[in-house]
Design a protein that fits this description.
CATH architecture of the largest domain: 3-Layer(aba) Sandwich
Strand content: 15-25%
Number of strands: 19
CATH topology of the largest domain: Rossmann fold
Cofactor: Mg(2+); FMN
CATH class of the largest domain: Alpha Beta
Shape: elongated
Organism: Isoptericola chiayiensis
Largest sheet: 8 strands, mixed
Strand order of the largest sheet: 12-11-8-13-16-17-18-19
Distance between the termini: 37 Å
Family: In the C-terminal section; belongs to the PPC synthetase family. In the N-terminal section; belongs to the HFCD (homo-oligomeric flavin containing Cys decarboxylase) superfamily.
Structural class: alpha/beta
Number of domains: 2
Keywords: Decarboxylase, Flavoprotein, FMN, Ligase, Lyase, Magnesium, Metal-binding, Multifunctional enzyme
Pathway: Cofactor biosynthesis; coenzyme A biosynthesis; CoA from (R)-pantothenate: step 2/5; Cofactor biosynthesis; coenzyme A biosynthesis; CoA from (R)-pantothenate: step 3/5
Number of helices: 15
CATH superfamily of the largest domain: CoaB-like
Length: about 425
């Protein structure tokens, strides 16, 4: 396959070298088309040595060959990594002021862009509008990772790892034989070997809950939890990438997290309390093949909620808030199976204590809940809620370990979907 690798001018340009190497190792012919700014981060000799092809950034570098037209016309795939905010803006507006943007205008093959920039730039309305425009035109814009950025900054906007970029790029052209992995490997296993899985959820209807429910104490206060919702969002994103029709029930998630999913075709239902989440999940589950309860659902709620803010009165003891138990949404779904053959998956955020380890508590919960699969993860001490990476042990209904997955939340999501698809294949 003939691939053009566009590189724009950001500090993450060094990762483009690894993307280039991975693509070349798969036997693809790759020509690098950098911007002038990109060459200030990585020199042309590096790209030329690894690609075996000339590198240029200006339309006047090969006038007889009409490179600004010929490159795009002859490509089977265009990958841009990193795609800076500037490059996204120029591509969205149809600019043709260098070789890369000219090539993007002439390419009629799949185009995949992997953005990289600071969080403020990624979340700016102008960038979001540019991304939406490109997606409407059929460009595959990969969601950036969340993690360490330039300097001490941390947040969404980090360039995905080269292996993830390559998998997303080759998936856009239906290439499912990336790397040296055996044909029987799962997605998580193939990630190490570099193979892109087939769209094994194509035609499946999936419901994912994400975030944390909030139980009102009064009009201004609530009982909540630390869930960021990022693992559930990653699950929805991964399911959509694997061909599923996805509904995300989002409990108190920021629009910045869910907007890219909406643009990618995921149906998002916003909820607040456990009662609202229960209603939304059960409604969507009546037509779902798989339900994944990744949201952190409150076990208890105040028995009553006053219509006015609870006041602090000098000399009076603080009010006593009586709690009542919320419905067990996961156990209900496992019991009721609202659609024939439905697979129900739960999450259990656990901490070890004197009564048992994280895994022991998880096993007891798996047997009690009755879900087909339960992903158990330890929380606290920088793990789980709010962390960039995650680690889960997947148990079956009997409490036996069927998988262990660690890495970014997207990698964990793909590993969990591997377990789910195996379960679907035997039902």
């Amino acid at each position: 396959m003939r691939i053009l690798l566009g590189v724009s001018g950001g500090i993450a340009a060094y990762k483009a070298v690894l993307v280039l190497r991975l693509l070349r190792e798969q036997g693809h012919a790759v020509r690098v088309v950098p911007t002038a700014a990109a060459l200030r981060f990585v020199g042309a000799p590096t790209f030329e040595a690894l690609s075996g092809e000339p590198v240029s950034s200006e339309v006047f570098d090969d006038v007889p060959g009409v490179a600004h037209v010929a490159l795009g016309q002859g490509a089977d795939l265009v990958v841009v990594a990193p795609a800076t905010a500037d490059l996204l803006a120029r591509a969205a507006s149809g600019r043709a002021d260098d070789l890369l943007t000219s090539t993007l205008l002439t390419a009629r093959c799949p185009v995949v862009m992997a953005p990289a920039m600071h969080t403020e730039m990624w979340e700016h309305p102008a960038t979001r509008a540019n991304v939406a425009t490109l997606r409407e035109r059929g460009v595959h814009v990969v969601e950036p990772a969340s993690g360490r950025l330039t300097g001490a900054d941390t947040g969404p906007g980090r360039l995905p790892e080269p292996e993830e970029i390559v998998r997303a790029a080759l998936a856009a052209v239906g290439d499912v034989t990336v790397g040296d992995a055996e044909a029987g490997d799962t997605t998580a296993e193939a990630a190490a070997g570099g193979r892109q899985p087939a769209p094994d959820l194509a035609g499946r209807r999936v419901v994912v809950s994400a975030g944390g429910t909030r139980e009102p104490v009064d009009p201004v206060r609530f009982l909540g939890n630390r869930s960021s919702g990022r693992q559930g969002v990653a699950l929805a994103e991964a399911a959509a990438a694997r061909g599923a029709q996805v509904t995300l029930v989002a409990a108190n998630l920021e629009t910045a997290l869910t907007a890219p999913l909406v643009e990618a075709g995921v149906r998002v239902v916003d909820v607040g309390s456990t009662a609202e989440l229960r209603t939304a999940v059960r409604e969507a589950a009546t037509a779902a093949d798989v339900v994944v309860m990744a949201a952190a659902v409150a076990d208890f709620r105040p028995s009553r909620t006053p219509g006015a803010k609870i006041k602090k009165t000098q000399g009076e003891p603080p009010p006593v808030i009586e709690l009542v138990e919320n419905p067990d949404v996961l156990a209900e779904l496992a019991r009721d199976r609202l659609s024939p053959g439905q697979v129900v998956v739960g999450f259990a955020a656990e901490t070890g204590d004197a009564a048992g380890s994280v895994l022991e508590h998880g096993r007891a919960k798996a047997r009690r809940k009755g879900a087909d699969l339960l992903a158990v993860n330890a929380v606290g001490d920088g793990r789980g809620f709010g962390a960039v990476d995650n680690e889960v042990t997947v148990l079956d209904a009997a409490g036996d370990v069927v998988a262990e997955v660690a890495g970014s939340k997207r990698q964990v999501a793909d590993g969990l979907w591997d377990a789910v698809t195996k379960h679907l294949s035997v039902m």
